[in-house]
Amino acid sequence: MEAAGGRYSGGSVRGRMEGEGSYTLPTGTEYRGTLRDGMFDGEGELLFPNGGRYRAVWHRGVPMQGKYTFADGLEYKDKKWHYCDGYDRRFYTEICSGLKPADISQLTNLDPPKKIPEGCYDCGDGFYNPETRVIVDYKLRFLRNADDDEHEWIIRTCRKAWDETIEHKPKP
């Protein structure tokens, strides 16, 4: 597995990952849990660099059932998902902590939002540079290259570094 750019710590049988262990992918995502014949098998979780986690029961490398939890504690539900669904557009932090006064905008779930590098977009899991078509995480580590569909979606939808934001100034 180290040949693929990852790091493994745990047991092995016949040169394959076996038993309880930890495998870190080149992207920084880490699996912690049970492995069998070199694959995720049994209970385990993926820990993502952005703070999210996916706990699942795996069979031969495929999750059979699982639950994703975002870095802020919001749990994803594939049925009856009511977060940011068109009817209620509040961020999770607004649901938990309440809305800001009417003249103060909250632009992202993070408050204050991350400063976007010049010429880039904030695409939710990192920054996108449309010239290189590269997405990096918020610590500026490579995540992926954007295909044409993702490029168009980011350009059309996401917050840009050059968007004007007006900061709230309290009245004297």
Brief characterization of the structure:
The protein is mainly β and 172 residues long.
Show the helix and strand layout.
Blueprint: E1 7-13, E2 16-24, E3 30-36, E4 39-47, E5 53-59, E6 62-69, H1 92-97, E7 121-122, E8 127-129, E9 134-136, E10 142-145, H2 148-157, E11 159-160
Antiparallel strand pairs: 1-2, 2-3, 3-4, 4-5, 5-6, 7-8, 7-11, 8-9, 9-10
Please describe what this structure looks like.
A hairpin with a 5-residue loop joins strand 9 (134-136) and strand 10 (142-145). The mean pLDDT is 83. It is globular and about 60 Å long. It has helices at 92-97, 148-157, and strands spanning 7-13, 16-24, 30-36, 39-47, 53-59, 62-69, 121-122, 127-129, 134-136, 142-145, 159-160. 9% of the residues lie in helices and 35% in strands. The strands form 2 sheets. The protein has a 6-stranded antiparallel sheet, with no helix packed on it. The chain has a 5-stranded antiparallel sheet with strand order 10-9-8-7-11, with helices on one face. By secondary structure, it is mainly beta.
Report the end-to-end length measured between terminal Cα atoms.
62 Å
Structural class call reads mainly beta
Strand content: 35-45%
Instruction: Return Rg in Å.
Output: 20 Å
